[in-house]
Design goal:
Length: 378
Amino acid sequence: MLKVQIRNDLSFSDLVNLQSSGKSVIKTPHVGNVYLNNLLVADLGIKMLFYDRTLGYKDFNFHPHRVVRAKEDPIDIASPEILTTHNVVNCRKDLGFISGLCQDMSIVDFHMNSLQTVIPDIDAITYTDYLQEHKSLVMKILKMLNQDPRILSEWNRYVDTFGILQQRSPGSWLDVEPFIFGLTNSQFGWLIPNSITILLSGIIEAVVTGCNEVFHLSGPDMVRYINMHKRFFMLAQSVVDASDIPVDIIFNLIPVAENRLVVPSSYKESLDNLIDAYINIKSAEISRGALAKKVTDSTERSALFDNFKKQRAKEREALQIAISECTVIFYDIRSARYFSQYDMLAGESLYYHPWTIEAPLEDISKAMKLFNAIYNNH
């Protein structure tokens, strides 16, 4: 049995504890410029599986062919049209704030080394290394899935030795098996389809840990992707159910992208003020509700509600001021101008409020929706 479900009732603290107890908790960003939300996950020690099969001109979230920083224009360091696994540094500009950068260096190594430098205890592995680490299990799963021609039809991307992608369709599994890039061929071959990649990590983590429940931290793109491809996952579920994979798998998707309540340390006071203002509003509403239940006289209730209205206006004003002083949380990753590991290399560090870690992600999402509404209307 393979069951996919979305969970937003957990906090980051819960997820760290689940990982410590032996459960599989994993985040799958791309190789490239890692933004604040993912830097938070890395700093907490949650396992990160970095997908290294992207193209710069299509990857508007991580921009692997560039160096991205919050207050500087992006710097192109490699071709945007070569697959990340094959791409190398080709930059003539002086990047003195980055040590160890050299011409023809793999951009995968370049970005991963920078992360390791700023977060030495990061638990990270690239997708290619992950496939090799679990090669026998991966091949077993792929052979099982691709017995069904409808799943085989998902294979349509092939990379050549230069890192250029081509559209192809295999005639049979025998056409694919000897030429799976990063698995059975290190230089060229078929790219494992994204739909199968999502499924693979869930099955592998369940089998390796011996726990039937896995927790996959996802962004909105993955949640949307799974909703778009429900028919594929239902098909894959039937194949897995008929196999000898020894576990029933519960694949928990944890939508964490909305948690933007982590900032450069220079914004610590601003973030503290923002969260304190929000928590004050929530606490005040609880107190007002309890007080209103005790007052039954209509005249007294009218006066009480007038007072509540004044209190809410004052609290809302305090929240608006706090938002205006903490606009760093409203970064646009598509702009290629956001805080990344390269800002940390230049000397900045991370800060996150305890509430960021302890609050359920559902509560974080509600807070961010309110913050965004106020920010966009002023």
